[in-house]
Amino acid sequence: MDLKSINPVYLAICVIAIVCIAITLIFLGFLQPAASEETNKAQDATWDVLYLGLISSEVPLEEQERMVQAFIEHNAGVSDACTITHFYSNTCPACMQLEPWLNAFRERYPEVVFTAYEAHESIYHEQRGILNREYGIDAYLVPTMYVCGTALQGREVIENTLEPMALAVYDLPAR
Q1: 111 in the same domain as 153
Q2: Are residues 63 and 140 in the same domain?
Q3: Are residues 93 and 137 in the same domain?
Q4: Which residues contact 132 (CB under 8 A, 6 or more apart)?
Q5: Sign (positive/negative) of CA torsion 43, 170, 138, 87?
Q6: Does residue 175 sit within a domain?
Q7: Do residues 67 and 146 share a domain?
Q8: What is the pLDDT along the chain (175 residues), one digit of tens a residue?
Q9: Number of domains the chain contains
Q10: Domain that holds residue 10
């Protein structure tokens, strides 16, 4: 049977019926349209959080360096999947000493996005508790930064570790 012998009306009805069935199946979720190569790459590039816990002044320097290196190796280029959250207090001497360093950091690396919250404001206290439980932290000390599965606590720790960690996440060169 060749196509010339098929009535064009029947052929049109069959095509319309197939298209309607395909649209219905897509709408109901039984059939997925073909994804582009970029979509497939994005789905393959899912990011798993590497929870390193807390880096504080109580962690020996060699262990801090090992943790930062593990962070850098695991989190290179994941800026779309990473959040950096900073908790501080307006009455904290270490937070006030950290502020000029953070301002200089923001000027050098405007691409690095992080949110900052006054730790004693009650609306952020619950959010901080959630992060502390997620990161396995008992204390509510400031300054603390939560960076993609790792918490940095204390002015010196933040000054020594945030830059290489953020540069890895955002895939930036040092400036």
Answers
A1: yes
A2: yes
A3: yes
A4: 138, 140
A5: negative
A6: no
A7: yes
A8: 555 666 777 767 877 877 667 666 555 554 444 444 444 444 445 567 677 889 999 999 999 999 999 999 998 888 888 889 999 999 999 999 999 999 999 999 999 998 899 988 877 878 888 888 888 888 788 999 999 889 999 999 999 999 999 999 999 999 9
A9: 2
A10: 3-33
Does some domain include residue 110? yes
> What six digits make up the tokens of 161?
């570790």
- Other C-beta atoms closer than 10 Å to the C-beta of 166 total 23
Q: Is residue 21 part of a domain?
A: yes
- Alpha carbons 136 and 134: distance in angstroms, whole number: 6
Q: What is the 3-state secondary structure (H, E, C) of 34-98?
A: CCCHHHHHHHHCCCCCCCCEEECCCCCHHHHHHHHHHHHHHHCCCHHHCCEEEEECCCCHHHHHH
Q: Which residue has the tokens 């396995």?
A: 136
